[in-house]
Design brief:
Length: about 475
């Protein structure tokens, strides 16, 4: 493989400690990091107990990265031999999900505790209890008094996802969190108190969410002897602060150890991702200095179709599906449609540029964020029009029986009215949700497509239709 400039400097660098590799998608960050592992293995693993971990965000990414390593890096490793390269060891590949699950299960086993996964309905029930118990103090704080329960729940979940202490929350930059709450204010103090009471009540009822699992997993890692002298963490832009802290707990800091953050300089679609909205890596506050590398272009040759991202577009009206691919290494806005193993390239002039926004809840409504994050290109004839369409990232599983799942992207036609049984994006008192509209009865309802969620009555509610869902984009 051919590397240039900063890619080579990073691969062969003698700098250890913390390293941050940033760049746009497909600029060779992951490929360079995998090649750097050979340098680390040959020169900076001094003992048999010294281990290297490459951590991907999910199992699909782990398998892709590991296959790439086996097919290219390991086959083409340098022929030079050092004293340390004679020590037989290899890179360990993990997904973050599997590591958290593993250590959470160990926590459960060690503590003899049985937990139940909390539902969205349970979250709201618990929070309503907490709010009723704190009505007097809430009424004194206009910011909280005038906030919906969904805003308060969202704030609590962000605090949990970020593993923020009371002191940290008082000072933290909340940019991009919707409603402004001043630093070191009474409002922050009350919100943090509500968070503590909410978490305490969850624990009493033996409920856990994904953020609790990360917290308990981290506590197990801190008391475990399995540590890694070198850690390379991919796609950090999508991780919560809690997840970043969990991985750092796996790190064994020595004079010759290293920790590499690989960061795509794009706006993450993950709602509670830490490295967004101006929050800096230095806020992690346990690393003194770090070395930055910025990759601006990729000169890395593709291995078959490693750079191809695969998607399926589902037309909700006609129930038809179209498989397509995007070549992330290409500088052109074009897509590749797969027709029975025959591929056709659709050029930019035949595509519609559709703006993408952040989350819409397929669960309980969540606060709206009106900022455009990026654009997506779709063939004109799939959506029958160039104007008044937009895309929202789905968060939650309340529409799963309509084939709209957590993590999908739903294409919305912007309109202020809808027919009975349409799937609509609706705004309710400042929060957005995706549901099926029921107009059969005197009172209109927003209906979930998952029996664990309750219908939402629109009677006497400040609600409006943002648009009607016409399609779903699923990443394969």
């Amino acid at each position: 493989m051919n590397f240039e400039g900063n890619q080579n400097r990073y691969i062969n660098s003698k700098h250890l400690g913390v390293q941050v590799v940033k760049g746009y998608l497909h600029t060779g960050k992951t490929s360079a990091a995998l090649h750097r592992t050979i340098n680390l293995k040959n020169n900076y693993c001094l003992y048999n107990s010294d281990k290297i971990a490459f951590i991907a965000t999910n199992n699909n990414n782990k398998m892709l990265v590991q296959s790439f390593y086996e097919a290219t890096v390991k086959k083409n490793k340098p022929s030079s031999i050092t004293l340390f390269s004679l020590i037989e060891k290899d890179i360990e590949f993990f997904s973050l999900d599997e590591l958290i699950d593993l250590y959470f299960e160990l926590y459960v086993e060690n503590n003899g505790t049985k937990f139940k996964d909390i539902t969205e309905s349970d979250k709201l029930l618990i929070l309503r209890e907490v709010l009723e118990a704190n009505e007097q103090s809430i009424n004194k704080i206009r910011t909280i008094k005038n906030s919906s329960i969904y805003f308060i729940l969202d704030e609590i979940q962000w605090i949990k996802a970020s593993m923020l202490s009371k002191e940290e929350y008082a000072e933290v930059n909340r940019r991009g969190r919707g409603k402004a709450v001043r630093k070191n204010s009474s409002a922050r103090e009350v919100l943090y108190s509500l968070n503590v009471q909410y978490q305490s009540r969850m624990k009493e009822l033996s409920f856990v969410d994904k953020y609790d699992k990360t917290k308990y997993a981290k506590s197990m890692v801190e008391n475990d002897n399995t540590k890694y002298i070198h850690i390379l963490l991919d796609n950090c832009e999508n991780l919560t602060r809690g997840e970043l802290n969990f991985v750092k707990a796996l790190y064994y800091k020595k004079d010759y150890s290293s920790f590499t953050y690989l960061i795509n300089t794009i706006e993450s679609s993950e709602r509670y991702a830490w490295l967004k909205n101006g929050i800096k890596l230095s806020y992690m506050n346990d690393f003194d200095t770090f070395k930055n590398y910025r990759f601006s272009c990729s000169s890395v040759k593709k291995l078959d179709d490693y750079s191809l991202e695969r998607f399926t577009y589902v037309n909700l009206k006609h129930k038809s599906e179209h498989a397509f691919m995007i070549d992330g290494a290409s500088t052109s806005n074009e897509i590749i449609i797969d027709y029975n193993d025959k591929q056709e390239v659709i050029k930019e002039e035949e595509l519609v540029e559709v703006p993408m926004y952040s989350d819409i809840a397929a669960g309980e409504p969540i606060p709206m964020n009106g900022e455009q994050e990026s654009n997506f290109y779709i063939p004109y004839n799939w959506i029958r029009g160039k104007k008044d369409n937009f895309i929202l990232h789905v968060k939650g599983d309340s529409m799963k029986n309509a084939n709209i799942n957590d993590g999908d992207f739903v294409v919305i036609r912007r309109q202020q009215s809808a027919d009975h049984n349409d799937i609509v994006a609706a705004e309710i008192e400042g929060s957005a949700t995706l549901k099926r509209l029921n107009l059969k009865d005197k009172i209109p309802y927003l209906m979930p497509e998952n029996p664990k969620y309750q219908p939402i009555s629109l009677e006497n509610r400040d609600a409006s239709i943002l648009g009607v869902a016409i399609g779903v984009i699923k990443q394969v």
